[in-house]
Amino acid sequence: MKVLHEDIIKHWIPKELVRLQNRVDYANEKGLRRELDEYLEQRERLKKPSEQERLLTQSPKVIPEVIDID
């Protein structure tokens, strides 16, 4: 489970950085200051190695599905 989570996050981070950059560009182009600040903050936080490490080591909560067999 942990290896799968790490693999997913390692592939998600670059895609999320591209998505955030596109949002930054759009917000800048349209003059959306509040959104621009939010996206810039998210992008800078995700670029930090400490944040990436936190995401990689954070274990996802697994919620089992309860099936009622009658």
Q: What is the residue-mean pLDDT, rounded to a whole number?
A: 94
Order of SSEs: HHH
Number of strands: 0
Q: Unreliable runs, pLDDT <50, ≥5 residues?
A: none
- Class based on secondary structure composition and strand pairing: mainly alpha
What does the largest sheet look like?
Answer: none
Termini separation: 31 Å
Q: Considering DSSP H and I runs of 4 or more, what fraction of the residues is helical? A: over 70%
Radius of gyration: 17 Å
Q: How does the overall form come out from the CA principal axes?
A: elongated
Strand content: under 5%
Number of helices: 3
Keywords, please?
70 residues; elongated; mainly alpha
Description:
The protein is mainly α and 70 residues long. Helices cover 76% and strands 0% of the residues. The chain has helices at residues 2-30, 33-47, 49-57.
What does the secondary structure layout of this molecule look like, with pairings?
Blueprint: H1 2-30, H2 33-47, H3 49-57
Helix pairs in contact: 1-2, 1-3
Could you provide a short overview of the structure?
The chain has 3 helices and no strands.
